Automatic annotation (TrEMBL):
InterPro entries reported for this sequence: AAA+_ATPase, ABC_transporter-like_ATP-bd, ABC_transporter-like_CS, ABC_Transporter_VariousFunc, P-loop_NTPase
PROSITE patterns: ABC_TRANSPORTER_1, ABC_TRANSPORTER_2
Transport found in the keyword field: yes
Keyword S-adenosyl-L-methionine recorded: no
PANTHER family, A to Z: ABC TRANSPORTER ATP-BINDING PROTEIN ALBC-RELATED
Keyword annotations from UniProtKB, A to Z: ATP-binding, Nucleotide-binding, Transport
Domain of life: Bacteria
Lineage of the organism: Bacteria, Bacillati, Bacillota, Clostridia, Lachnospirales
Protein name in the entry: ABC transporter ATP-binding protein
Gene3D superfamilies: P-loop containing nucleotide triphosphate hydrolases
Location of the ABC transporter domain: 2-234
Length: 241
């Protein structure tokens, strides 16, 4: 579903090596967690995958489509929810969601069904008629999530999705991620919440100082470190230096 090959990104005319020659893939039906300390290169990697930043080197394919050669077709495959979604907050929630559905060409039958389902799930049925500027941080995040789910993306990409969500909404988001994967779609997300990653992800990659220092299933990561410990233990040991 997602293939990242030898990807690098430098900033400040090459003086900052934010991402250095990383490679990984996310298979259909997989939840993939992307972990790393502050400044490790997670957001930079995600922005290259979704086409917001041009790689210095390397290739990204999404469902077989090169995201630099076929950017529009590649973007149709994905939804991206940034850590701080910037939404058109002068609009009412429902106007925003219909706008997103229009952009992605979602049919009126699918739109009606998905809106009813997700607005109920994330408890925004009433608030959707208010302007977004009146929403709390968590409500803004939820309207962005619903917008991201309306076109039923093949690859759902989220940067720190749990921050700001109440426990019930976080629970439902995790359920939505699992349901997507049961349908053969994929989820790729960054997080600092290691307990969530450990429970939810099929595979995990850990990035540190721009380089991937470990990747695999929890079992593989444990074997790599020769431990029976938690992901927190493994993460701290690997990123200590
Ligand atoms: N626009 C930019 N110009 C220069 N350097 C940048 C820029 N954006 C990011 N960096 C640098 O690139 C490196 C990777 O940053 P990035 O935001 O990708 O990290 P991150 O893993 O997402 O961190 P966090 O967990 O704190 O969000 C850091 O050293 C950061 O200072």
């Amino acid at each position: 579903m997602l293939k990242v090959n030898n990807l690098s990104k430098t900033y400040a005319k090459g003086s900052v090596k934010a991402v250095e020659d990383i490679s990984f893939s996310v298979e259909p039906g997989e939840i993939f967690g992307f972990l790393g300390p502050n400044g490790a290169g997670k957001t930079t990697t995600i922005k290259m995958i979704v086409g917001l930043l041009k790689p210095t080197n390397g290739q990204i394919t999404i469902n077989g489509l090169d995201n630099q050669e076929q950017p529009i077709e590649a973007k149709k495959q994905i939804s991206y929810i940034p850590d701080k979604p910037e939404i058109l907050d002068k609009l009412k929630g429902i106007t925003y969601l219909n706008f997103i559905a229009d952009v992605y060409g979602v049919s009126s039958a699918d739109r009606k069904e998905r809106l009813a389902y997700y607005l109920d799930l994330f408890q925004l049925k009433e608030a959707v008629n208010d302007v977004i500027s009146s929403y709390s941080h968590g409500m803004k995040q939820k309207i962005a999530l619903i917008g991201g789910l309306l076109h039923d993306p093949n690859l759902f990409i989220l940067d720190e999705p749990m921050v700001g969500l109440d426990p019930k909404s976080a629970f439902h988001l995790k359920e939505v991620m699992r349901q997507m994967c049961q349908k053969g779609k994929s989820v790729f997300f960054s997080t600092h919440v290691l307990e969530v990653a450990e429970k939810l992800c099929d595979r995990i990659a850990i990035i540190n100082k721009g380089k991937i220092i470990a990747q695999g299933t929890m079992e593989e990561l444990r074997a790599l470190e020769g431990t029976k410990g938690s992901l927190e233990n493994i993460f701290l040991e690997l990123t200590e230096a």
